[in-house]
Amino acid sequence: MRTLIEALDQRVLLTDGSLARQFQASPLNAERDLFGCEDCFELLNLTRARLVREVHEAYLRAGADVIRTNTLAASPLSLALYGRADEAFYINFAAAQIACEAVDAVPGRGRRRFVLGVVRDHGWDLPPAEVEAAVAVQAEGLLAGGVDGLALDLVPGTGRARIFLAGARRAREKLAGRAPIFLHSARGEASFSKRNLDLSDGLIGFRPGKADAKWLDAAISREGVNLVGGGASPRQTAALDRVLRGLAEDSLRPVTAWQRATGAVDEVVPPSSVLSLDPAVAEVH
Question: Is the pTM higher than 0.85?
C-alpha cells in the first residue's frame, strides 16, 4: 500500500483513538498550555508539541495504521471563539508536522503508516464564502505540514460538502499539492451526491471502534466501513488491532467490501496487524 488512497480502497484500516481523553488525563496548566482557553486542546500543537507527539506515538505502538491530526476544532471559525482565529494556519501546520514526526519516530518494520488531516464541520451558520475561506486556511496548513490526505468530516444533511470541497481544493491548488481529499461519513455514500463524490478523491466510511468481532464484521461487510476508530486509549486500539487481525482473510487487515465483491486485491505491504507490538505500548500518563 504505497498511498493512502490505495490503502483505504483495499483494506480496512485502524486509526488512533481519542486524543482529548489522553490530554485530559495529562497534567496541564490551563494558563500556560491553553492560554486560558479551557478545553481548546488544539492549542497544544503550539505549546506542548512533545505531549501531542507522545500521544500519537502511543497509538502507533498500539497498532494504528492512520494517525489523525489534533485539529478537530482548528478551523478559524472555531478558534475565533477563543480569539485565536489568526493562528489557525500555524496551529494546523504544527499539528501536521507533529503527527508526521510521530510516524517517522515509531519503527514501521517495513510497512507504511499514514497521517490524515482532519477538517471538521461544526455547523457554523455563516455565508458559504466565509465557510469556504475558513476551510481553505485549515486545509492549507495541514497540507503544508505534510499530511498524506485530508478528511472532510461533515454534518450529514447540511448540503455543505460542495463548500468544503471547494475550500480544500483551493488550498491544494495554491500549494500545487497532490494529497487526496476524502469525504468522511459514518453513513457512507448515502451522505453525498454523486457530483460531490466525483469532486472528491475518495470516501472514508468511518465507525468508532468497538472490539466486538461480530459487530465489526457486519460494519465492514454490510456498511462499507474502511476506517475504524481506535477507541478511547492505546489499550483499546491494541484490542481493536487484534480483532481486525482475526477478521482478516490473511491475518493482516480485512479486505474492504468492494474488494471482496471484485475479488481483485493487490499484494500489499503488511500493516501493523502482523507485527509484534512495541514493548513500549502503554497508556499515556
Answer: yes
